[in-house]
Amino acid sequence: MDVTEDLFGNITVTPTRTGSLGDVNQNAPLAVRMRPRKLDEIVGQTHLLGPGSPLRRLADGAPMSVFLWGPPGVGKTTIASVVSRSTGARFVELSAVTAGVSQVRAEIDRARAELARGVKTVLFIDEVHRFSKSQQDVLLPAVENRVVTLIAATTENPSFSVIAPLLSRSLLLTLNPLTGADLGVLVDRALTDERGMIDPSGQRYTITDEARANLIQLGNGDARRILTYVEEAAATATALHTTVITTEILTQAVDRAAVRYDADGDQHYDVISAFIKSIRGSDVQAGLHYLARMISAGEDPRFIARRLMILASEDIGMASPSTLSTCVAAAQAVQLVGMPEGRIILAQAVIACATAPKSNAVIVAIDAAQADVGKGRGGAVPAHLRDAHYASAAGLGHGVGYRYAHDGDHGVVAQQYLPDDLVGATYYRPTDHGYEAQVGSRLAAIDALLGRPEQGSTRSTESTQAGQRSG
User: Fold this and answer.
1) Fold type of domain 266-355
2) Is the entire prediction scored with pTM above 0.70?
3) Domain 379-466 has CATH 3.90.320
4) Counting beta carbons within 10 angstroms of the beta carbon of residue 390, is it exposed (0 to 12), middle (13 to 18) or buried (19 or more)?
């Protein structure tokens, strides 16, 4: 049974395919027909295609296994098929979504038998991050003994989704999203190449400059997507009895650009990271963009609300303490109201957080305190602060000499509160941002009443380090 695959990796009919890749039927989808046949036809990834590069050596038959990590539609499956063509090897393809351990073992056994006959095998595994640890373990001996040339594709960071022994025996190659120029090459090629689009009368399609620019923007770095759009736009043009693809025709062919966001993969982490960092940086417009992106992609609004609550303490804190209340209220309201109206509530919380004065003094304070505890600092609780609510406590000195704070002027009395080995330790250093400036003034007055030394700069080394935290 034939298996059709598009230019950059969609496989249909069956998860496995063996043998060399033959010529493509002219009735096949455009993305299938335009699939590169050699490395020089691959668009983009110039950082991986230079002389002496791993991919060049792999195509020349060098024994190695590689992991191809990158977003959808950038050429992972294409690279694997081109390598198999270049080396004349058997090409076996498995999808980690459907293949089980028994199927992986069967293909490795077949590869071992073929190798005994002098025939090498390229084993391509799509979405390898979906393989369990036991399935990945099965691949280890075959990779280590070079029974197969493993080319594994993943949209998730292999450092987190692939077992270390397998990754250490392979090269990790990172594929980049295609640029606008790369996509432009694909559009032009699709309209001029002999394998490309030709109308029923045998004429070539053309595209206006405006429509071409819009098409490239809609492609959003994905070759598979842009070739699908070209094909649909050409079909729409034919229905309208023209061979010129205009912006109006393109609009009819493409309802809207699909949101580039994988809720289970790297883009999930990349977008939420950009979301947090934009709000931390007080860019309300960017914060709203990433919020809209997550909502459009179907992200769980409760997850977004949780991250906003964390940000309200970590990055705003006492500079605007009411912002945390706003975020908590937003989280509760979203649960009560639901979507799509919940998007308005989340947007209000984003705007409140982005426009609030910023301070990371709270997280710096608790991190510093925990660091001291982690180092073993913090001796016995001073005797006068210990629990004195049982009969023999006074005999042990518990509570003796304790001064009740409300008996002192301003409700503050000077006495030792920290353990002996931490006397003088300072964790919370308020900034002069927003309301925290008032907190700082009050804290200075409290320190004076407690007889504590005047604190130095509000920007400590720990604060600088905390400011470099990722979202």
Assistant:
1) Zinc Finger, Delta Prime; domain 3 (1.20.272)
2) no
3) no
4) exposed
